[in-house]
Target: Glutamine--fructose-6-phosphate aminotransferase [isomerizing]
Amino acid sequence: TAVELGEHRHYMHKEIFEQPQAVIDTLEGRITQEQVLVSSFGHQAETVFQKIERLHIIACGTSYHAGMVAKYWAEDIFRIPCQVEVASEFRYRNPVVENNTLFITISQSGETADTLAALQQIKAMRQSQSSEHAANETNVPELSGISTLTICNVAESSLTREADMVFLTHAGPEIGVASTKAFTTQLVALALLLTSIGKVKRTIPESRENLITNGLQKLPNLIQQALMHEQEIIDIAETFADKQHALFLGRGTMYPIAMEGALKLKEISYIHAEAYPAGELKHGPLALIDENMPVIAIAPLDDLLEKLKSNLQEVKARGGQMIVFEDERSDISSDSGFKVVKATTNVGRITAPITYNILLQLLSYHVALIKGTDVDQPRNLAKSVTVE
Ligand code: G6P
Model:
């Protein structure tokens, strides 16, 4: 193939280790040390961002999980209302579309059939509602201020051709079916997008913009540090080989990261995995906990840590095997019955989900390696789902 494996056994492994560079390439020319460059979203971006009042993100698979992380960021940090849904649901539920909405489609390939159809449907609605209004035939109000933006890793693709605005992730070609570096760069793109919107709409102060850009500049290094935990993760993966189920827990942005971790494990190791927001544990999944059900918790040092810790005690009390990814300054490790990877330090609200996800990628990869599955081409799956 054109893309060489080099020292790596699989493309997935290679792509996991390419992430620091993929982030550098995606940031290149889009930020300075202190500021985001709004114009990297196109010359009309400033005018569009000024007008929009809400975001609606549409994607599939791993790209959908990137959208879910962005929803937490959008509302918490930038105070912009945001909804996110999978394209196949959006298409067929006859959604109410509101004025001044920015529709964001996210896709590695730019060819996913449902995502493309959703984008075409939005454009058709915009078209027909404005012509109906012009003809004055119905009392459907005119739809105004609808714009579409696609975040995509392939410059010449169906989605980039359809969207009003395009932002390219510069992850480089992704060969492994299970998405890794594309996801990471989608999150970087979304952080840049939200910061740009927040800047234009003045929902964040300049000091916040400076903090975010500084954090993003440090991200390649944070990812590099996360990758250095590979050996510890290999040791943990060994305890997985005979398991049939796994439960991933997180709160806040770590909930979609838990979902992405569970998806990766399913995709490449064929172990049934589920993700739950940790607070929902007692509403069902706790009944499943025993020594055969490993629980993976993502526990950054944040406002929710104490709440998460009490969830973990509930798991421990039921004999569950706990694997915790935590901050170096956290103290869950002092407790027995937990396998702990002290993986991060100094991550912020934007960089944390991106950094913790790297650890989960490594975990799935090494579990799959032990199980001997076809890591780069898992059974029944395709890199790009171009038919419905
Ligand atoms: C397939 C791939 C996933 C990917 C999803 C969406 O299911 O196996 O890795 O996340 O499609 O693809 P897209 O190219 O739209 O991001």
